Amino acid sequence: MRSKKRDDNRSPNSTPSQVLKTSQKSNEFFAGRLLKQIEKAFSDLCCFEMMDLSFETCTDLLTYLGYCGDQLAFKDRIIGDAFKIMRAGSATGSNVSKRSFIVFINAINNVFLQWMKGGGDENSSTVNNSDFTVKSEQETAQIHYRFFALWEYRQKIKLLSSTNSTKPASTTSPLDMSFKPQTANSSIRSH
Question: What pLDDT sits at residue 128?
Fold first, then answer.
């Protein structure tokens, strides 16, 4: 049997067929980083007190996390499809749970962990039947492929923010931005 070598020179514009399977430990580490970013987004966008998320709130969170922006082609259709997937089985039909949102973010990053299945694990008591779940690595990969545009958009934003020392505001990662209001006088230089 020949072993497969990882191509470390892959471009950031890699296609879904080039996605490699990662170890459980790597997935757990990355999922932890994602959760910290999501919790920061919940905090910064005042979502901690909310029990579930509206379409507009999900759009704001996805934009804040860098998965979409005005430059994303077919943004409304893609986010609409994502929202439908997250709320599948929802009793209310109009909102999604925070847990569903977190599972979806992990899935579009091609991260699968056992807790994402829903039932049958130690966290199953916190899982609602209307929550979005993924049952396998294959289902996670299908979601990743289906919403590859969101993942790719974030990768481009991250690449641009790491390579440009003087970044235009439109290419700055939402995670790296701090609010800096400008006044009419702030653009005038003193001599």
Answer: 65
| 183 falls within a domain | yes
Where does 16-175 have alpha helices with state H?
A: 24-44, 55-64, 75-86, 98-108, 137-146, 148-163
- Tens of pLDDT, residues 119-174: 644 444 455 667 889 999 999 999 999 999 999 999 988 888 777 644 444 444 44
First to last CA, the chain: 71
> Residue 42, class by beta-carbon neighbours within 10 Å (0-12 exposed, 13-18 middle, 19+ buried)?
buried
4 within domain boundaries: no
Kindly give, in sequence order, each residue whose CB lies less than 8 Å from that of residue 109, ignoring residues fewer than 6 positions away: 30, 34, 144, 151
Q: Say how far apart CA 143 and CA 7 lie, in whole Å.
A: 23
Question: Is 70 domain-assigned?
Answer: yes
Q: Are 153 and 66 in contact (CB under 8 A)?
A: yes
Task: Name residue, tokens 């009419």.
Answer: 184
- The domain in which residue 97 lies consists of 22-187
Contacts of 9 (CB under 8 A, 6+ apart): none
Tokens of 106: 């992990």
Single-letter amino acid code for the residue at 8: D
